[in-house]
Design goal:
Order of helices and strands: HHH
Largest sheet: none
Oligomer: single chain
Helix content: 40-55%
Structural class: mainly alpha
Number of helices: 3
Radius of gyration: 18 Å
Strand content: under 5%
Distance between the termini: 28 Å
Length: about 80
């Protein structure tokens, strides 16, 4: 992850929820995840759907640039807003 996204996968601040499955039974962990997924904070909105579409478009552009030999070393930051 650090090579491609410049983040450390073990950094707990990257996640909305971390569960120690050595201490919490799987059934309880599942209940926690389902409860959180159903909460108001995680309800899909038009804005959140648009943000996901924007992220997907940015990822496709980066992948296309990397797949093309002349642009494979280009490191760009994309700011996509309102993609369709």
């Amino acid at each position: 992850m650090s090579e491609h996204f410049a983040v450390e996968w073990g950094d707990p601040t990257l996640y909305d929820l971390t569960i120690n499955t050595e201490r919490v039974p799987v059934s309880t962990a599942v209940d926690m995840v389902v409860g959180l997924a159903r909460s108001r904070e995680f309800t899909e909105t038009p804005a959140s759907r648009q943000h996901l579409l924007d992220l997907a478009l940015a990822a496709k552009v980066r992948a296309a640039l990397r797949a093309n030999e002349p642009t494979s070393a280009v490191d760009v930051t994309l700011d996509v807003a309102g993609s369709e």
